[in-house]
TrEMBL record:
InterPro entries: Amidohydro-rel, Metal-dep_hydrolase_composite, Metal_Hydrolase, Metallo-dep_Hydrolase. One of its GO terms (molecular function) is hydrolase activity, acting on carbon-nitrogen (but not peptide) bonds. This is Imidazolonepropionase-like amidohydrolase. It comes from Saccharothrix texasensis. Pfam families: Amidohydro_1 (PF01979). Keywords: Hydrolase.
Length: 350
């Protein structure tokens, strides 16, 4: 089966006519190709921060749950995910089965003793962290470090995290760092982490350095916003004050990061899975241009992971919409076609 899509392709908005030659786009016409959809074309959506495969925090990885979560992503138009932390080592079909997204992952989280979610991740002494992270990155390309935890947990020291980054880079990998403290965020940036995950309470003075050294920010803005009402209902205390102050300032931080030239990535960190549209809306609501908010969940995120867009030779992923989603982000919730690896996995005939 050879499929065909045509229409205006983002980000440039020019008309393209593409054929899927297996799992690669081509502009060479193919006789009897099935015209699946035409409209506004995106090179597939990306959720750059998701943890599929566990029914609840701390649960072990369940292969049936994993497949269900991945299908929810695809139904939302997500053709690529990055999982900076999984509840266990994924099965061989993860990221390659035809009906599931392409996937990048960091294996289990790496954390200091006494921190992070019980049942998830590996705890390690500071002396062990660089070698553990490098071994993980050598296998999968990424390592994920819990740089700080809760409002008062001590962050990973700068010399330790710097050693982790050097060790991972030496094997050709990249480091994602979870941080929600001002101190932990500073350590992540000064250590040269490749991506800051969440970044709540990050000092805005660090944004210029992030842009210069290529440290991306995955703010997971929508899940933080959803947590605010629940946290407000808790008794007063330092943890409540810390979270509410950071979460309420997070949108302004994201807008400032985009303005400073930091690469912002859209990630949901959410249950249920498949909530990427809500994250794009949150980024735009925080002050990012709709074009840039969409880039964070599509062509720019794909480029960050080394994937080209809608061009000859690129992987044959696409999402097709009836209208320009930059003019109406609600379009994102209603794709007329989702193409994954050259196959139509969702088509709404009009």
């Amino acid at each position: 089966m050879v499929i065909r899509i045509r229409g205006r392709a983002l980000p440039h908005g020019e008309h393209v006519d593409l054929y899927a030659d297996g799992d690669r786009w081509t502009t060479d016409p193919v006789q009897n190709a099935d015209l699946v959809a035409e409209g506004w074309l995106l090179p597939g959506l990306v959720d750059a921060h998701t943890h599929p495969g566990a029914a609840a925090a701390g649960d072990p990885l369940d292969h049936a749950v994993l497949r269900d979560h991945l299908r929810q992503h695809v139904d939302a138009g997500v053709t690529v995910i990055r999982a900076p932390g999984l509840a266990g080592e994924p099965p061989p079909w993860f990221g390659v089965d035809p009906d599931t997204p392409r996937a990048w992952h960091a294996g289990p989280w790496l954390a200091q003793h006494g921190q992070f979610i019980d049942g998830w991740g590996r705890r390690a002494d500071h002396a062990e962290l660089p070698a553990l992270a490098a071994a993980q990155a050598a296998r999968t390309g990424w390592a994920k470090v819990i740089g700080d935890w809760s409002s008062d947990g001590e962050p990973v020291p700068l010399d330790v995290l710097s050693a982790v980054v050097r060790a991972v880079h030496a094997v050709g990998g990249r480091v994602a760092v979870h941080t929600q403290q001002t101190a932990g965020g500073e350590v992540a940036v000064l250590a040269g982490a490749d991506s800051v995950e969440h970044g709540m309470s990050l000092d805005p003075d660090l944004l210029t350095r992030m842009a210069e050294q290529g440290t991306a920010l995955t703010p997971t803005l929508s899940v933080m916003a959803r947590s605010v009402p629940e946290v407000r209902g808790r008794p007063d205390g330092p943890g409540r004050t810390w979270f509410l102050r950071g979460a309420q300032a997070h949108g302004s931080l994201v807008a400032a990061a985009a303005e400073a030239g930091v690469r912002v990535l859209a990630g949901t960190d959410s249950m249920p899975h498949g909530g990427i549209v809500e994250e794009v809306r949150a980024l735009a609501g925080a002050g990012m241009r709709p074009h840039d908010a969409l880039a964070a969940a599509s062509w720019d995120a794909r480029a960050y992971l080394g994937l080209p867009g809608l061009e000859p030779g690129a992987p044959a992923d696409a999402v097709v919409y009836a209208e320009d989603p930059r003019s109406d982000l609600d379009q994102l919730a209603h794709p007329i076609a989702v193409i994954l690896r050259g196959l139509p996995v969702r088509v709404t005939r009009r």
